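Below: protein 1.
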Amino acid sequence: MTLKVALLSVAVSAISFAQPMPPRPPSYPPVDLDRMVQRVALYPDSLLAQVLSAATFYDQIPDAARWSDEHHYLQGNALAAAIQADQLPWDPSVQALLPFPSVLTMMAGDMNWTTQLGNAVLAERDGVMDAVQRERSLAMRYGYLRSGPRVTMIRTGPYISIDAVDPAYVYVPYYDPAIVYFPPRPGFAIGGAINFGFGFSLGAAFRPWGWGPGVARIDWASHGWYFHNAVWGRTWGNRFNYVHPYPVGLRRFDHPGPPVAARPAVAPHPEGHQLEQRSAREREADRTGARRAEEHGRR
């Protein structure tokens, strides 16, 4: 019996050592975090909170970008109804970006950046939030970032908030990170460096996904953000089982589970809408913040 126990112990030890160790959380120096957030640091706070959350589900971004592109002609209540009807399998933070095809296209187009951003949010949230504030401070110091008819800059102590004037109409700013975080060269028109020219209407139908007055907010002092008054608390340690208490309409996501790769395949829900990708002109208009005419059905 003693020999059997000893052999069993050796076998268990061998199995234990054969198991891969959990990956350690990544670590990024401040200079890398600064570069990492530059693309999104000047987004309004509500949109920034959604982007940072969705980036942690980076494996879902390419499919979501494709869906958003193919349904870009739907807006307002029609788009919200389509998202619900298609029973999309992605986290609500990813679904919250479906009204913004240009944002999802940007994230899907550079998955290395999106993955790094998501991992940084999970492992070093305080560092990510501090980096956003450093970049905002630079843009404000050099005169690029300022209040206007569409967004309001609010400085509370060391923190700069960017809020949409109308919470139901969210603008995606277009800017060049190589310009807005550096001193302007002589003769450069500072006022045109950040374009808040085109936005998206997000009425009451989008409230379940975290849109609307007071629904999504960032608490810069605590380095956290809230959806529906519940702190978004996904971290590197709980990334395989963290569950955010979204509203009843999105409760199919309210259960812990294994990593995405280990979950059983889900049969796609029948598509009830015509699929129509954006034209080259529509893509460029979305990318640069220009107002575009809808071309769906005109080709």
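Below: protein 2.
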Amino acid sequence: MATVRILLVDDFAPFRIYVRRILEAHPEWEVIGEAGDGVTALQMAAEMQPDLILLDINLPRLNGIDVAQQIGATVQRSKILFLSSHCSQELVRAAMATGAMAYVVKWDADRDLLRAIITVMEGKSYVSNRLSGYELPIRRSLWPSG
């Protein structure tokens, strides 16, 4: 199985450390970079071409939804998984409308993040259970899994 190269984007450094520790427990996943703001995330995504980007919505300099829209136009092979504390239907809908493959609420990361990554890397969409009643524009990735 090929290593999944992950870019982790969140402005709260302690949360990035927490997520990195979860990911490092899985040898098939490698965090290749971390960004604390949207502009840096775009630069790193273009340079590193990660397989997966874990992306928060509230970011300095450029919010996560704008980042996801621009990444979709420039780094087409990267799958996006939103990892955010926001769970309003409008924000979740806007995030998923960018072409993101998943949305995990931060409060559910310990339960949902691993399952979400596996599902996304299989080319399927995923949303946290707490969002399951939402009507969302979920899209399938054009990038083949595997």
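The mean pLDDT is 88.
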